Amino acid sequence: MKYDITRLDQYLSEKFQTSGFPSVTVCIRGPEGIIFEKGYGFADFDKTRPADPDTVYGIASMSKSLTALSCAILQTEGKLNFDDPVIKYFPAFRIPGTPRECVTLRHLAMHTAGIPPIAPLEWSIVMNTPERSSVSSEYLKKTAPNKMETIDQVIDYISDSHDYEPLGAPGECMSYSNDAYAILSYVVDQAAGIPLEQFLKERIFEPLGMTRSVLDLDGSEAIALAGGNITQLFDYDDNHKLYADDIWSVLPPFRGCACVKSTARDISRYYQMLAAKGMFDGRQVIPAEAVDILIGHEFPETAEPFYCLGLNKRTMAGRVICEHAGGLHGVSTYGGLIMDDGIHGGYGMTALCNLGDVSTEEFQWVLYNLILGLPLETSHVWAHPVGTRFSEPEMLTGIYTSEEATPSIFSVTADLGGNLYANFDGEPQLLVYCGDTLFSRRSVSRPEEHLGVSRFLLRGGKAWAVRNYTRVYQRRA
């Protein structure tokens, strides 16, 4: 297939210029090799180092699929099973109100253990990362029960805390949990007999030729292998002024959850291997069975994303897509694959950015669109308005909160006409009905602008929670 690379480059360049991002680096790889790769912008605040496909970035939560794949490889070798109870590896683990043996590794990997958004990851960052301070981090330091520097401290909080309400029985409710993947990191250590860091290097990075990828806690190993080609970390301070530093988030128990550093070129290799069911450059580098365990036949193929093991899965223009985003201080990333369907080959692609708390999803869509033969500007928002109002808005009105870091509040009101509105951490939004209990959140001033999706969870005649994208906020009033 012929691709209009010139048009792609022009479109991405225009998109980058309007984004306000310091840099974005992209890469697309397929059976024919690298189709397109380029860096836009600069890796440093002084604009002396242009970003390129070999620039090392953090990938944050994109690390999760690497941890899940490690577990899947170990399952093919009989060293663990996703149906193992968590207490096999951590006898002290429990979720209050749930029988100890009922939570499995699969529940952790699919975010269905019943753990709501809680604060240990944010506590771990503020208590273990030197030389970085903000209003929110000072608040978190005051509320942290300890340094959250060991997995046992995370497990103790989950097991004994009276500060959160579980989301129900294991398997009942999906809510994204960094804590679940922290635990899985240490399960790999036990099952493999070597640290996850070594397992990733020997079993995934080296076989794929990912020579500029590493799992490390403080960035020191990434700096050493980068040879100077590593990004600074950009963010906005409390006065909304852009700054950059070289202080990587240090969150020791969450290593396999968020601590991989890599490049656009390396990550596209990883995703293209998954798209080809473990094959890379004519070699079976990962067992096909492990890839199937990760994202394969047991998971549905629908337009609405379904979280498998470390990756969301959905359909797009008749093809299966698996993808994940990531975000930390100075890190906003998106990566994914288009699965080999037996007719068309498999492709991997990624868009990495060095500014925290933004989204590179639309850059990723452009990369998908090139391979899918769609206009580059095609949107892949999957929640579509149905043109009617929700019939019983009083079921949904109320206040919902998340305690993942500083408290996050999502309040829902209705007007006399039955139109629903949300106030999300002080930002007013429209709730546009998309069928079932699904809504597209829209900007009040620009109703055509989609901001995210919310799905209300009903019980006993009213919503007991709302899932904002992948995180469940529980009703408080």
Strand-helix topology:
Layout (H helix, E strand, L loop, with lengths): L4 H15 L3 E8 L2 E9 L15 E2 L4 H14 L28 H5 L10 H9 L6 H9 L7 H10 L17 H15 L3 H13 L5 E2 L4 H7 L6 E4 L5 E4 L9 H4 L1 E3 L1 H12 L3 E2 L2 E2 L3 H8 L10 E2 L4 E5 L2 E10 L2 E8 L8 E7 L7 H12 L25 E5 L5 E7 L5 E5 L2 E7 L4 E6 L6 E10 L2 E7 L2 E5 L2
Antiparallel strand pairs: 1-2, 1-14, 3-7, 4-7, 5-6, 8-9, 10-11, 11-12, 12-13, 13-14, 15-16, 15-22, 16-17, 17-18, 18-19, 19-20, 20-21, 21-22
Helix pairs in contact: 2-7, 2-12, 4-5
Protein name: Beta-lactamase family protein
InterPro entries: AmpC-like, Beta-lactam-related, Beta-lactam/transpept-like
Organism: Hornefia butyriciproducens
Notes on the structure:
This protein is of the alpha+beta class and 477 residues long. It is 28% helix and 25% strand. It has 2 domains: 13-382, Beta-lactamase; 393-475, Beta Barrel (Lipocalin). The chain contains 13 helices and 22 strands. The termini are far apart. The mean pLDDT is 96.
Radius of gyration: 22 Å
Q: Strand order of the main beta sheet, please?
A: 15-16-17-18-19-20-21-22
The largest pleated sheet is described as: 8 strands, antiparallel, barrel
Q: Look at the structure and give the mean pLDDT.
A: 96
Instruction: Classify the secondary structure makeup into a structural class.
Output: alpha+beta
Report the span from N to C terminus: 55 Å
Number of strands: 22
* Beta-strand percentage range: 25-35%
Low-confidence stretches: none
CATH structural architecture of the largest domain: 3-Layer(aba) Sandwich
Q: What best-fitting shape do the alpha-carbon axes yield?
A: globular
Number of DSSP helical runs: 13
Number of domains: 2
- Write the CATH fold name of the largest domain: Beta-lactamase
Helix content: 25-40%
CATH superfamily of the largest domain: DD-peptidase/beta-lactamase superfamily
CATH class of the largest domain: Alpha Beta
Oligomer: single chain
